[in-house]
From TrEMBL:
<feature type="transmembrane region" description="Helical">
    <location>
        <begin position="337"/>
        <end position="362"/>
    </location>
</feature>
<feature type="transmembrane region" description="Helical">
    <location>
        <begin position="76"/>
        <end position="97"/>
    </location>
</feature>
<feature type="transmembrane region" description="Helical">
    <location>
        <begin position="473"/>
        <end position="498"/>
    </location>
</feature>
<dbReference type="GO" id="GO:0089718">
    <property type="term" value="P:amino acid import across plasma membrane"/>
</dbReference>
<keyword id="KW-1133">Transmembrane helix</keyword>
<feature type="transmembrane region" description="Helical">
    <location>
        <begin position="118"/>
        <end position="146"/>
    </location>
</feature>
<feature type="binding site">
    <location>
        <position position="52"/>
    </location>
    <ligand>
        <name>Na(+)</name>
    </ligand>
</feature>
<keyword id="KW-0915">Sodium</keyword>
<keyword id="KW-1015">Disulfide bond</keyword>
<dbReference type="GO" id="GO:0005886">
    <property type="term" value="C:plasma membrane"/>
</dbReference>
<dbReference type="GO" id="GO:0005283">
    <property type="term" value="F:amino acid:sodium symporter activity"/>
</dbReference>
<keyword id="KW-0479">Metal-binding</keyword>
<feature type="transmembrane region" description="Helical">
    <location>
        <begin position="46"/>
        <end position="64"/>
    </location>
</feature>
<feature type="transmembrane region" description="Helical">
    <location>
        <begin position="545"/>
        <end position="566"/>
    </location>
</feature>
<feature type="transmembrane region" description="Helical">
    <location>
        <begin position="504"/>
        <end position="525"/>
    </location>
</feature>
<comment type="similarity">
    <text>Belongs to the sodium:neurotransmitter symporter (SNF) (TC 2.A.22) family.</text>
</comment>
<keyword id="KW-0472">Membrane</keyword>
Amino acid sequence: MPVPTFLKKFGILERCGIGSSEKPAVKEKKEKEPAGRAQWSSQTEFLLTCIGYSVGLGNVWRFPYLCYKNGGGAFLLPYMLMMVVIGFPLLFMEYSFGQYFGVGSLTIYKKVCPLFKGVGISYCVINAFVCIYYNVIIALSLYYLFGSFTSLMPWTHCNNAWNTEMCLDAHGMSKVVQDLIGINNTSNSTVEGTTTTIQTLVDVNGIGSSYNISGDYNMTSLNMTSALSLNKSARTSPTEEYWKYKLLNVNETIHGIDNIGNVRWHVCLCLLLAWILVVLIVCKGIKSSGKVVYFTATFPYLMLTVLVVRGVTLEGATDGILYFVTPVWSKLASPEVWFAAATQLFYATNIAWGGMLTMASYNTFHHNCFRDAIIINLVSFFTSLYAGFAVFSVIGYMAHENGQAVEDVIKSGPGLAFIVYPEALGLMPLAPMWSALFFFMLFLLGIGSQMVGFETVITGLCDEFPIFRKRRLLTSIAVATLLFLFGIPCVTQGGMYVLQLMDWYAAGFCVLVVAVCECLIINWFYGNEKFAGNIKEMLGDKPGWWWRICWKVISPVVIVAILIFSFVKYSGAKYGEYIYPGWADGIGWCMGLASIVPIGVVALYTLLTADAPTLKEKYILVTTPDKSIFENRDKASDNGSEDSEQLSPNSPELKQTPTTGDSMLMDDSIAVQEKLINKTNSTKHFDDIDDAKV
């Protein structure tokens, strides 16, 4: 079968091992691990780990809502375009960068471009912030999972101590409706011989203006149908009351972040359990987590399939799905739609978080990371679509049962996962089983992302400080304990206000800034052509022109445009109808800046303290790769392909090649380094002479 020419030019099929009968230039062989550092036991472990990392909670509660809100099926067009210009290129770049040098996020920039070693710190800070509140969501999933193991789940009915008079469950009438029916059957205007009860019911439920009730409160015109209709618009669901009054125990004093109340200890215990599970999974690094992903990365798809099959068979499911996929092409004229597509891509693929780079650093030298970059983007995209069918089919069913429109039911974020969807599942036969499946799926999706984020922090510490590698378990416990303590404010009565603030700022604009820094460091400071040559060493062929121009120009320009748009359209944090005060937004900005300030501060400090006489020589010195970074890679390359003719960065043949624009800085840097070394040796020689004279 002939291969399309444009695919050959981009080098997609060949690098994936498709469309060519020729043997690949470099064969994947069992390679010797760098001393003291583990490698994946198989390619499958790496792929499943990355799938578990990229396919997380956002695929279930964020993408479907964004798709519905931003043009339905039309939203897929800008999303796929962003995937082509940002998703594929940058993920391939991160995989290649981490795999070639084989070190963690803290060490890699320190060795490749010391001026920007602060980027590695940014990775760790971002992941630490996200781990704090992400594990809270996992804890909530565990809490609901445990609550599902009952014949009558507490959030499906209104007969609990915490329920209010306005609660109305789906399979019966609330206390309010029962009272209204009692009034309807009462002659004149009395209930139990008084008018006080009627007055109270009218005032509390706000039905006076709706029904034009006369002064004598003659309720005979209020029939059962109108009472039910009124209650459907004014009621609160048992799932919402369970969330507010049982889980969080919100009261009249808890109405914002200025008063977060007391710790909810039952949720705090679930948070502790979640952290214990994370530590157990990553305690031995990829040797332990690599085995866990066979379950955590695959089982959610089985449960998602069960939910999809069940959902599409429900009455009203078609209406919900149509809301999800029906294209509204006029939405594409809105810049907000394109901005939403780009930002969702960063959430879906975890680009510029450091996790993908860290996981790739455990690959063998000749692993086909290009193929994996394509697979991960596609899997994340189609999983989001698949989850959308599971979500909107059930939402359509719920809207049908309650006589509401889909747009009045759908929510995003925790509101979808812990209020709307549980209520919809409660309407089904065998509701506890469906609820347990759903929350177990959320738990697995969350833990798959959480363990990679936590591993990124631990790997960075272990690579930078070898003493931590020898005591990895203690290091993991210490870091997890610290993050657990920081997460306690998120499990208070007003903890959701804290969680939303962290989610709003901790991994927002700072990730975009780090992504731009990645592109600049790798393609402008280190060198685009040099990096392409490194990839040739690993994969046997240089990446095509499309990838190189995306890394160097297109991707960073698009990301900068997204950044500018986000600042122009900036609005403070919100949680539902609640708008955060200015001081809370200030704290949020501090969290975001804490992730990127290290880049500038460390760069300035490194430049000023560089051991060189002039500013130019200082600059050249701190932008020159440390030769030690290539040592393990050279050994891996030699062990992986003894008969390969690929050249290492330090080989004599490569040094004799003509100097290109990308390598001129490297040549100047080497000259400066040799000059400084000679100067140091000369100084030492005269010092020895002076010592001898003394």
